[in-house]
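#lab-general

N.A. 3:47 PM
ok so I finally got the sequence cleaned up, no stray characters, all 333 residues accounted for. can someone with queue access submit it? mine expired

B.Y. 3:52 PM
send it over

N.A. 3:53 PM
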Amino acid sequence: MIAYLIKRLLEMLPTLLGITLISFFIMHLAPGKPTDILTELNPKITPEARERLEKLYNLDKPVVVQYGLWLKRIVKLDFGESFSTDRRPVMQKIWDQKQSLLDRRLFITLMINLITFAIILAISIPIGVSSATRQNSLYDKVMTTTVFIGFAMPSFWFALLLMMFFGVYLGWLPISGLKSLNYDALPLLGKIWDRTGHLILPVFISAFGGLAADSRFMRSSMLEVIRQDYVTVARAKGLPEKKVIYKHALRNALLPLITLIGLSVPGLIGGSVILESVFGIPGMGQLFFMSVMTRDYPMVMCILTIGGMLTLLGNLFADIGYMLADPRIRARQ
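B.Y. 4:20 PM
back already:
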């Protein structure tokens, strides 16, 4: 097992290198330069000042040389300085030590997505299993209709609808940010409820779409498994139906869902771009969107690199989950 993990980790290095290489060159193919934000809105800027800015950012060098300089810094775990006006180090903007843990961008994004992830698994697996065991029943038809509506509904549009209804018309929930203006003056329980209220809509919107996909995968996998011969034999032995379903069938039905879970790990950051932009949440998704709009190359590359690492780790976790769920796979390693 340990040898397999070491082998997989070593195989990740060239793959991650390829991801950064492709991302770097595609990013530079986009129209515009980081200096355009600083120069186009200033009528007094001179060509000499524009050239000095490009030299400061190493934009006067060929793209291959720029990538080499970036890669040389990455080996030292240095993602460089942001091209924004504050010129702060990239990792400092992502993980600001001056802010509390709850207000740091990386923690905010991971917290929201991990809560969403736990809710999706806790609800989608029982829904998928119950729909499969009651195939073509009224319950199955209602759940199928509901989850397909959730799967087809654009998340940003659904978010705006709920913001209008619960935030504007009813005034029950906040619709922007992660805390109120009077947050610091609130008691401890008030602070907890304030943050919880700000998280209800984003988490619900994020979980609703993921719930639809995972529950459908779980239902399809469960339908295939309960038709297998070993399930028929278990029933013929007189075992209780719950034991047949949840002990014998469920474990094998989880295998396709494990793959889906592994592939969803990169969405911890990538899937937050729209959600955090709509709700004004100061997380990694919002930072990535702002960095793309301002051509902040170091920040974009840092977030893309983190996303690439999450993708590879997601695949690794999926393989480990396969081995834990299926002894036959462990025997082959």
